Amino acid sequence: MRALLLRDLRLAVRAGGGFGLALAFFLIVAVLVPLGVGPGGTTLAVIAPGILWLGALLACLLSLDRILALDWEDGSLDLLATAPIPLEAVAATKALAHWLTTGLPLVLFAPVLGVLLNLAPAGLAWLALALLVGTPALSVIGTFGAALTVGIRRGGLLLSLIVLPLYVPTLVFGAAVVTRGAAGLTTATPLALLAAITALAAAILPFATAAAIRVNLR
Amino acid sequence: MLAVRGLAVARGGVTLLAGLDFGVPAGGALILRGANGSGKTTLLRTLAGLQPPVAGRVALPAEGVAYAAHADALKPVLTAAENLAFWAAVYGAGGDVALALAAVGLRDLARRPAGALSAGQKRRLGLARLIVAGRPLWLLDEPTVSLDAGAAAAFAALLAGHLARGGAAVVASHGEAGLPEAPELDLARFRAPPAGDGADDFAGVRA
Amino acid sequence: MSLWEYANPARFMATSGAVLPWVSALAALALTAALVWGFFFTPDDFRQGATVKILFVHVPAAMMAINAWIMMLVASLVWLVRRHHVSALAAKAAAPVGATMTLVALTTGAIWGQPMWGTWWAWDPRLTSFLILLLFYLGYMALWAAVENPDTAADLTSVLCLVGSVFAVLSRYAVNFWNQGLHQGASLSLAPGERMDVAFRLPLYLAMAAFVLLFLALVLARTRTEIRARRLRALMARERAG
């Protein structure tokens, strides 16, 4: 498992691995939104939590098809499936590697973008916390979507169509944490629900992911 | 080592081969012969457990198998040694990477990215994975494709060494597999009777 | 005789072929009766006037939008556990019907909402939930369409249906949390208090039964078509194999 995690991390940071692309995309969203809605500070502050969560969602989505497609093409997935490690653990490890290379940088970088979007200072810490708790679910769900569509040529659009509806609960609770946090309200309920969804997704989806990979390898 | 009873295999819902009965003892090898599309790859994938058999049973060694497909499962940005070390860790058999690289004649290229290797060198690196996997049964799909004569001979020696140590191999091959005395299995004899996709269920429907 | 015998395609074709004309006729009859009764022989609501009568389409469509997904979930489970092809094909056949029901519920809701709430669309939790349900249907159907091998497609869509069901329920709660909404509570609840008048309730029950029959007829017809398509594939594969 550790070997797989290290390999995926190494692949991500080496040339052509796509590390940083998601981050750059996140930055571009945060720059384009004020250009679209106008520089008005109050408007930006109101929509900032939603925009930042949407940006994180889409940035995550961008890199999903890389999670399994490359291993599928070069035959690594065949070998991982025949190797003496459970495919469920492979699925979970791949999701973890994706989160470490995509989700975690977003978490660390988001407060800066929060400032750009005029998010209330009280909300910045909540933004980082909500992303920290919520983005693992995005990676786990995304890995599941990637497993469903791995055998399909040009499956990227289909992947988005399948994955985005599954992101709804995470988006709702994640943005609610930030909105409430920025307004100085209590965030305990949405934060607990956000954590529950991440825990649920991490507990059940690796099994569904492994099942989908097995079906696609058949 | 490997025992197959009454096996039938299918690709894409179409049964290709049926009634396969064969075994491979420790130290033995079996060469699969057949034209393109005759089901060699499908049979190997079924033996490797990637595909469920349509019928019949496959008994594998408890230690598992090492499967080598057409694709070599190499990451172009990782070096030859890194690629191999990864698979050694995945198989967890404590295979020695440097030794395996030397065995396929790639010792001097250990630090070169796999993407910069020639087709034949990649193939050899892919076969070195079999050594670090440390599994008794090798399932090889066209192992000598894109190997030059020298490398093919080296591979034949490698395979002979594996068999001499009590291993076994099933090799799908068009040409020389480098095992002149190994028994051959002509898959044309096991071609399934023409039946279509889900035919048992659907072709008989009166619509 | 076991229920599973109907899962044999030949058996299913014979039985469904005999049943389908009756179900279709009954559905047409019940639908006509319910809609004529509902539109012309019920009083106007004291607050909502005649607009209320759209409920005889809106409520049954919304009900079937959810029931169709539940049926797909059950059929997917049957396929995953028992590998009956008819089950997988029935799930595939039900999806466009369910999606259409969702669309009908959304459209009639908008038409009803315009005079009532003064807006075609509001991000009310129920409306939003149905919109999200529509997205789930679309993803499910797109996956069926994208995978070439029918058995692989059946497996993948079944897994998606299972996971999607969990997330659809989670989305429902999330959306409820997100906005408390304009929509009235359940009109047919058994709780005392604000209950619908019998004059509305009886034709509504009839309309619901009619929609169930309509759904059944459509799914049976579509499943038969899917089985014929599979048979065609099987015969063509046989021909190619020579």
In short:
The complex is a heterotrimer of chains A (218), B (207) and C (242). Chain A is built from ten helices and no strands.
Protein described:
The complex is a heterotrimer of chains A (218), B (207) and C (242). By secondary structure, chain A is mainly alpha-helical. Chain A has one domain. Chain A is 83% helix and 0% strand. In chain A, α9 packs antiparallel against α10. Chain A is elongated. The model of chain A has no long low-confidence stretch (mean pLDDT 91). In chain B, the strands form two sheets. Chain B has a five-stranded parallel beta sheet with strand order 5-6-7-3-8, with helices on both faces. In chain B, α2 packs parallel to α4 and α3 crosses α4. In chain B, 30% of the residues lie in helices and 23% in strands. By secondary structure, chain B is an alpha/beta fold. Chain B is globular. Chain B has one domain: Rossmann fold (3-Layer(aba) Sandwich). In chain B, β1 and β2 form a beta hairpin. Chain C is mainly α. Chain C has a single domain, classed as Four Helix Bundle (Hemerythrin (Met), subunit A) (Up-down Bundle). Chain C is 78% helix and 0% strand. Chain C is built from six helices and no strands. Chain C starts with 8 loop residues before the first helix and ends with a helix. About 2% of the residues of chain C have low confidence. Chains A and C meet through α7, α8, α9 and α10 of A and α4 and α5 of C.
Walk me through the topology:
The complex is a heterotrimer of chains A (218), B (207) and C (242).
Chain A: H1 2-13, H2 21-37, H3 41-62, H4 65-73, H5 76-82, H6 87-116, H7 121-149, H8 156-166, H9 168-182, H10 188-217
Chain B: E1 2-11, E2 14-24, E3 29-33, H1 40-47, E4 55-59, E5 65-68, H2 80-91, H3 97-103, H4 119-133, E6 137-141, H5 149-164, E7 168-172, E8 184-186, H6 199-202
Parallel strand pairs in B: 3-7, 3-8, 5-6, 6-7
Antiparallel strand pairs in B: 1-2, 1-4
Helix pairs in contact in B: 2-4, 3-4
Chain C: H1 9-40, H2 55-82, H3 85-117, H4 125-146, H5 150-178, H6 198-241
